[in-house]
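tool_call: predict_structure(chain=1)
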Amino acid sequence: MFQPELHVDKNIYKKSFPKFDKPKVIGYINIENVKYISKICEDKVNLDLNLHIDKVKRKPVDLDVKLTELLKFLLEHEVRLNFPIQNKLNDAQFFCYRGLMTCLACTPYENKDPWEIVAILHKGNIYLCARETPDKKKQKMSMSERDKQCTSWGFKFEQYMLSDKPDTLPNPDLPVDETEEFSLVMTTKLNDHKIVYGAEMDGIRCDKLPVTSPPDTNDPEAIIQYLSSQQFIELKTNRHIEYSRQEKSFKRFKTKKWWLQSFLVGVDTILCGLRNDNGIVEELKIYNIRDLPKMSKGYWDPNVCFNFLDTFFTFVKRCLAREIKRKYGEKILNNIQGLPLLSLHFSWSPDNAVHVSDHYCHDDDPILHEWFLQNFGKLRNE
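tool_result:
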């Protein structure tokens, strides 16, 4: 049994920004839910985010987000994507969601929320999935009506701004369905780490160039070409900032998360609805992603965030290598395709190091579904 640790002190990661390739679109999930925005400007408005809130369709509170949608995508598009079969651990690809990378990159500055992540090595790939901590589960199950209302306000703002087609207007006079999502699947490299990740996207910009709907075809390459040529925007809501304490909190926490979410998918603009406590958006404000680190200087540093993210990926590979050598011997490190499924559990809480254990049991809490385990890679082996 080994207990290596990864230290999180932000001073360790204050070095030059690591090499990060421009994210490339390789797929999509639920293209029927893609949205568009035609008006992007700073303006005084009066948008009631409580409109039809009594009829909103919310996600189930106990919904345990795993990798299901990403796994379905990988299985359906395995032949088209034709990922190389890797036998060495250092060449393994990571599969995850953007939210997990955002959470990890925020870690050196996080002082409140712990996290838990499971890493699974299967057929030469590493799957990363966030697990809810006991406190998070308790908090989720005991959400107040006010918490639910604030969550719904964000979705309603999107409905005010986004339309179903490039040439139609938004229609907020409908209840919001919070389960509707459109995601891109992207790939990039962070130093030597190859990463494939899903990311929910808000909308396509129609304010600069004429935009058409996606091509009416079953050919994924044509749709990917269409999506790759578009500019996306991120939509946010935030309470009006009236006091220095609110401004400090905004610069310390929100701008960091907003920058990471957008930078990881190549989005350069955020349209924010500034609201009051009653859920009325009174002003639209535009944030350029490149300006967020400058306006928040002294609160967080992009270099620290991405260097920690890079170091965590290296740490995962190192821990898996240790576990493989412990169980199967060093020679198998050059033939990881032949290994049975192997999983490790990583956990972190503020003011502590990242800990790893082999206590996670995939059979008790399956992240990779049986239909995926039985079929992914099967076509290549035949």
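agent: Residues 5-381 form one domain. Proceeding to next step.
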